[in-house]
Write a structure and sequence with these properties.
Length: 468
Amino acid sequence: MLPILLCAILSPVIHAHTHREQQPLQPDLNRLVDVVDVSTEPWTSKYGAQIDLGYTGPLSFSHLPYTRCLDDGAALFDIGILGMPFDTATSYRPGARFGPFAIRSGSRRQSARGYTLTWGTSPYDLGAAFLDCGDIPLSATDNAKAIDQMEAAYSTLLARPVRGGVTSAYKSRTAAFAKDGKEHPRLITLGGDHTIVLPILRSLNKVYGPVSVIHFDAHLDTWAPPAGAQGQERITHGSFFSIAADEHLMTNTSIHAGIRCKMTGPQDIAHDDTVGFQVISTDDIDDYGIARVIEKIRQRIGDSPVYLSLDIDVVDPGLAPATGTPEAGGWTTREVKRILRGLAGLNFVGADIVEVAPAYDNADITGIAAADIVHDFMAMLQLDEPPLPHVTLGPDTGDSPRILFSVRCKLRYANGRTDVGKSIRRPLSSLHENLAECNDSGMIAYRKSQRCCVELKISETGERGRLV
């Protein structure tokens, strides 16, 4: 009885004490001090601003501004980075829930210094306002709920007004084919296993109707759900496209790129065709070349609104090992990036990169590759056409400038004749003398040397050159 009696006696005291401690603190206005002028302090006066280095600071993609966009209705953007940490519909190795973190970590060396020779520009110079919108807090135990959460979040951000650019270079990209005739933000999504594309396509369908899909992957992902599967069990990272086709979320003009998986037989390709896809295999790049691969993708998509989904396992596992279902014999990172460059100018409504599972990585090489591909997305989504290829010609000899020939220049002679569709061979000095016309975005830097010749293939879209 004694312990009970003591509790009865002490409980009011304990309760009162706890209640007093929970009272909110009131600021003592008399003790407030003036804001410190940091410019007079030792650090700032000597070293300036406290900037973030490539390996320091909060983790956002490429050190972009970061906010939880779902909570912040005032945060406007044109292109957002959104993480979907989901991996509970995988068939082999899980771990892609850590993909958004790994991709952001792989982007740490990237910054506002975004110009590359590959694109001939920086994505930050093309006008769009970028924002890292953080990750969706997804259920890790209920797939049906998680998929609904992804759809709700994506639809929320898709319905937000756009920022409308940060420079005059910004262009409207989606209003022409949106159902409401309005410009909508575009999202680059960091997966997550490939199942995330199903809720994304459901969200896009509300705004654009059925869209085409460019699907980079080692696997078809159009397999019918397993026989006897019911409800949520039907939806996996290998069946989501089949489900999307059943829901009429895609056009019949979608295309795979990089396929090399094992199949049951030709019937898998026959079923894939009913889902609305054509297939470019990994081997096609060797048989027909990159230019032909790009051409076939662009022909297939045409002018339709298109969504691009890239599974990191399209890259050979020797170069990107951190993925759940690796397949030997894939494309190189460089080949994938080159194809992406050739797709600029299509009517993109969004893009993703999925299946990065960093537990299987080595020295962060997969995360770094994925981050660089996202950087390509950022430029690709904003250009009217692929950047025309440039070449560096001739040996680099000391202080002489390297020969950089812009492909935007067409060779026009003084008499007005333009060489189109033929190969020409000229000494560089002669070539430069004959170059009488070049558009505003073209440039030529050259080394005068009769020993160095250039062979150019002139076409209606520009020149390609190589040292001969």
